Amino acid sequence: MIVVTSFIAHGRRLLWVQRGLQPQRGKWAIPGGFLENGETLAEGAARELREETGIVLPPARLQLYMAGTITFINQVYMGFRATVADMSCDPGVESMDCRFFTREECPWDEVAYPQVNDSILQAYDDLDSGRFDVWHAEMTEDRYDLRPVSRT
Question: Are 8 and 101 in contact (CB under 8 A)?
Fold first, then answer.
């Protein structure tokens, strides 16, 4: 199964959604979901972003950012990144809320999938440094490995 996500930034803030569906209803996550038939990776990420947050970005604006495998749930995920000029967002039917959080503001104790927190922390590190490598992650039940595959 392929999951597409979007790390959307405004300054030092990342966009989060409060999940309106199970699993993890009421918890916070980076916008994303499953790729649908007939979509490119970027098209799927743009669709999920629009459905969950009301933010409309053309797929061409999304830059490849992270790729990884989550072996214990048989998923491959592809993360994209982009910036927006303002923090306007509107939760869709699958979301209870959506907001931009700095690292310090983020409700870390209410994160839907803490297994991927290292990837999210890397995104905050990249926002702080202004340097955005492309990353590859491998997650197993007992190991998390995140490494750059290209340097910018």
Answer: no
